[in-house]
What does this fold into?
Amino acid sequence: MLQLINVCKSYTTADFTQTALDHVSVAFRDNEFVAVLGPSGSGKTTMLNIIGGLDHYDDGNLLIDGVSTSEYKDRDWDAYRNNRIGFVFQAYNLIPHQTILENVELALTLSGVSRAERRQRAVEALGRVGLAEHVSKKPSQLSGGQMQRVAIARALINDPEILLADEPTGALDSKTSVQIMDLLTEIADDRLVIMVTHNPELAQRYATRIVTLADGVIRDDTRPFDPAAENSPRRTAKQARRTSMSFLTALSLSFKNLLTKKGRTLMTAFAGSIGIIGIAAILSLANGVNSYIANVEEETLSEYPLQIQDQGFDMTSMMGLGSGAEGSSAEKAQDDAPDDDSGKPVHESKMIASTFDSIGSNDLASLKGYFDSGESGVESYVSSIEYGYNVTPQIFSSDTSGTVHQVNPDKSFASIGLGSSTASNGIMSSMMSTNIFYKLPDNMGMVEGQYDVMAGHWPENYDEIVLVLTPGGSVSDFMLYSMGLRDHAELESMVRAFANEEAVNAPSDSLSFSYDDLMSVTFKLVNAADFYQRDNEYGVWKDKSSDDAYMRNLVDNGETLKIAGVVKPKEGAKIASLQTGLYYPSSLVNHLIDQAGNTQIVQDQKANPATNVITGKSFADEESNQKNGNGFDMSSLFTIDGQKLQSA
Ligand code: ADP
Ligand code: MG
It folds into this structure.
């Protein structure tokens, strides 16, 4: 049930305020066909848009099923629009280069319904509006009436409770208009249809109720509805169905949109900020599908683990301000000030400051100690705890006959500003990373259930890697470059051409490989500590990573990593925790840490904790230098003759 109470809306342009709705109060039954009549400019479209949540009222209230929308946030309006409302406009708003089937399907894409079901429902909806034979035509091959039918099919695909139509026949001849009206009448059989029209005859003939507007005021209503008096029974059955639908929509939105994205950490913060997981949990309680949601949550959290980093900041403090949805309290206070726009200063909103203000640091060593002690009791709430040590395995192609090529961390795109080499912050670097090597979780139970092993096996030893294919069983060309199955020089020349803004010659051939081909690839592992060589003359450790001969020797003598298995997401798996790439086991990280601990440079550093063994300077000096500039005082190179400068 929809009810507008004293709704006011005005539009202010440069120097003029136009009242579009002036204290409009009207309620609609769950099932009727309402025509809204009135001269042009009387506020019909404005009222329809406010009912549909496309526009917001200035004053008054809109009740949905008796619940006020005055506290609705953007996401509440989104959910309302997406799940309960269908729109039809005078302009059909179809996408010209897509078939009408695709046009209708598109309305479901965001809702996360599977492709097969999308298609089936689109075909059904088009059948319902009498266009079954035309599904593969483009909009330009249809008449106006047919295009409007497509728009109606699109509006119906979610089976909305309320269909809003703004002059749907405005561009059609009278014969076609009648057909559309017949269709709308049929649709109004089991839902609320509100249609704006300026054709009183059509309104008389088809609608069950006519509301007439003039100058933003309701002048006439042929069949008013007083919800208080009628005391209509609540449609509980339909409501339940509705909630479960929006629950599914909320879920699938959260997964489909977010799972494909790379920067997991940021997306986790983002998902948290828009509360998707929270919404899903609440809706699931309402629907009594706890076991299902528990399962989905477990799988989701394997994708979006709760992360505690040594430094963290609240990304949402930035986003809230950006969207204007939830301003800071200071901002609110200013908004509450009397509305005198003329002399009102423009206030600064503290986006950066409040973001960095929210930075906190965490004592992770103590936290781990606490978890390890077993006193926390956290085990019963988590499926696994993983520790990350910020160790990036230095991995190279084993073929050093040409150049020495490092594949992890990947630097293929460094020249065009992409890649992990520069960013130091954990969040940013995971966003910017072009790496294809990832660490497997410590706890493999959940992951193994999500994949089919196509060849070989999951890593059993630290020097074994597993190749994760796409759900379709393919591997990207970019991975082939890193694996040496495509010539890396080809990629380098493409990147170079791109950086120079020249035409890029992308290879058009498409290769295929047997599992044995893929599993014959090997890599070389080097301990980062070995990049440094002691310089006895100066008593420091020198970074040799750009010394070709040194690196070639190092890589040739490195440990060999082999691909032990190839896996693919199970058919129909809801969640696949691993994106495509090459995964090494967490035992590799432990191996590297153990190994590094025994190297001379680490021993030296440990023996001299106050001195940086790479530069020979004390950390304290370096830090104060850094505070005064970039570690190097430029001004010490110059003297300035003030008098000369002045006379110049
Ligand atoms: P109708 O659909 O009945 O023709 P509308 O609801 O579109 O009327 O418009 C009502 C009044 O509000 C008109 O005077 C119109 O000019 C004004 N109006 C509508 N939308 C806007 C807008 N976005 N900006 C400024 N004025 C608007
Ligand atoms: Mg209008």
Summary: The first strand starts at residue 2 and ends at 13. The longest helix spans residues 236-259. Residues 280 and 336 are 33 Å apart (CA to CA). The chain has 26 helices and 22 strands.
